[in-house]
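USER: My hope is that you can spare some time for a protein that puzzles me. I am handing you a single protein, as its sequence and its fold in token form. Walk me, if you will, through where the backbone shape changes along the chain. The protein I mean follows directly.
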Amino acid sequence: MSEKVGVRRIAHALGLTERRVNQLVTEGVLTAEGKPAKYDFDETIQAYIAFAVENAKGRGAGDAEAEKKKLQADADYKRAKADQEALKLAELEGRMHSAEDVESAVTALVYSVRSMLLAVPGRVAVDAARCKTAQEISALLQAEMSQVLDSLSEYEYDPEVYAQMVRERKGWIAANDEDEESSDT
């Protein structure tokens, strides 16, 4: 039978505070008898060593799991970065357009259609005043609208327009540099 000792001696032997020793008793790791608490020295040391070994095993498994999660997160990050670079390359090659550029091009097209339609009354006003019947005015308006629609039907996608938008948005060239280039040609 080993010696019965107080909390202060156990704490000193284990390199713990007295408070931590009391917590270990509360957690059921160590056992004490009586008031004031007395500990079987050999049994308490062995119980603490067993507890520390179990904790170390659990931490080792936790470390492996944490490392696995870290590697997975790193792989996910690298995959997302590669996907992002692939999207940038597709944009630069003209195989994909940003929503911002598409919105800008569609807005320009809508304003073009708007200006063509708003110009119709001014172009037909004089001719409409010379018409004698509603049928003549209708035919005149129909011909003018057909001309506007024919003009719109000739619209074609121009990849260079989108490439120019990308260069301007990325800051590779300023918008006024392009104006100077087009005035030189």
Q: What stands out?
A: Residues 84 and 171 are 19 Å apart (CA to CA).
